[in-house]
Design brief:
2 copies of one chain form a homodimer. Helix content of chain A is about 65%, strand content about 0%. The first copy, chain A, has about 210 residues and is an all-alpha fold.
Chain lengths: ~210, ~210
DNA sequence: CTTGCCATGTTAGTAAGTCTAACATATGTT
DNA sequence: AACATATGTTAGACTTACTAACATGGCAAG
């Protein structure tokens, strides 16, 4: 089937090609020309759909945030509400996502310039973190944890984000090939989640109480 | 003083120009041509001193690691040995370094390809982290902390690295303008440092015992 | 001192990439 | 059926990384 002149789905085809190329060649290895070649159009064609290269990548990043959020949501529902496993599953999903598409992850969180609050990438990023906060809020409520859930979520995010960055950039590996990210995450998140003050003035289950010492 | 033909110090001049340009324009905004313009030479001149663009940047990154290590060492000596303040000062220096030269920091830790153990950037990175481990080992010994100091250092590094990345990439700011990195770091590192098992079978000062609750 | 080597610079040119302008074609609305 | 518009193309301007061939001048051997 020859699309003699008009492609028909060029916009989405370019977004898909861009994501695939970022995955294959890295964020700095990606060229618009490459994406055009893959989509079978001339190098001028994208400019009917996007202002510039950056704008295509924004779509890719937004889609990346959607995928990440969806992945975390799926992982969460597989664990009981309020369980520490549910929180840990979020971090695990985050890490796995980044390991599957490191360059995409790096671009998603490395968009320094995009400080405009209404920017598409910023919005998706917000809703992604918003989901994490919701989960932590639930965890704190069900476990009668005292303190600001937002602050706890931020600490966990910071930890997991650090572990993810050091993993996908190969920094752990540069130090030693015996470093286990999982171990670091498990130990540290255990400390962050379970050495918290509890409200003991109310009855009910305390889900985190039976964690390994 | 006209350097009519031969520059004399071109190699170092190019490294300096590269670092300055990375600071000013970001890692993706840096071009070799720019550095040549700033050094006052033609665009072919660098190739007498470096194989390619990447090789200049490697020198910049190595110098960056040296600066970071030196900065942390200076910050450490300003605090008493074995004190938690000394450990926290390392993290603080790490963060400040990255905030001063975000693009440089990102490149220093984002060199995915450089997995060759004898590579100049890898070596400097190793010795940088090695310094941190030494400090944590000292802390653990003076505070009779049980457990692998390396593992504790890795947790702290992971946390601080995450906080640094989320700060310089503006990710905290995208979520909310009320987020304080310092608070996150203080809370989390407190948990990572002070909820550790201690050996109580020996006398001596326990430096961390008087930390704020 | 002079001669010539060679380290280090230059100019010119290639290939790739982003993006613009002017032109071409298909699609669908009247 | 005819035109307006959306969406493609080709040609080209400009930037960049890098190479090849040439130029210059500092320095060492005679």
């Amino acid at each position: 089937m020859k699309k003699s002149y008009h492609h028909g789905e060029l916009r989405q085809a370019l977004i898909d090609a861009a994501r695939a190329l970022v995955r294959e060649k890295g964020d700095d290895g990606f060229s618009l020309s490459d994406a055009c070649r893959r989509a079978g159009v001339s190098t001028a064609a994208p400019y009917r759909h996007f202002a510039d290269k950056h704008e295509i990548l924004d779509e890719v990043l937004a889609q990346g945030f959607d995928d990440l959020t969806a992945g975390m949501a799926a992982a969460a529902t597989a664990e009981p509400a309020g369980s520490p496993q549910r929180i840990l599953a979020l971090g695990h999903t985050y890490l796995k996502f980044a390991m599957a598409e490191p360059a995409l992850f790096r671009m998603m969180f490395g968009q320094k310039a995009d400080t405009a609050p209404d920017h598409i990438v910023v919005q998706r990023g917000k809703s992604c973190f918003g989901f994490v906060v919701e989960e932590v809020v639930t965890f704190c409520r069900l476990n009668r944890v005292q303190g600001d859930a937002m602050l706890i979520a931020l600490q966990l995010w910071t930890l997991v984000h650090g572990a993810t960055g050091l993993t996908i950039d190969g920094d752990y590996a540069k130090i030693s090939d015996a470093i286990e990210v999982g171990q670091i995450l498990a130990l540290a998140s255990d400390r962050l989640l379970f050495s918290l003050p509890r409200r003991m003035d109310a009855p009910g289950p305390i889900a985190g109480e039976d964690h390994v010492e």
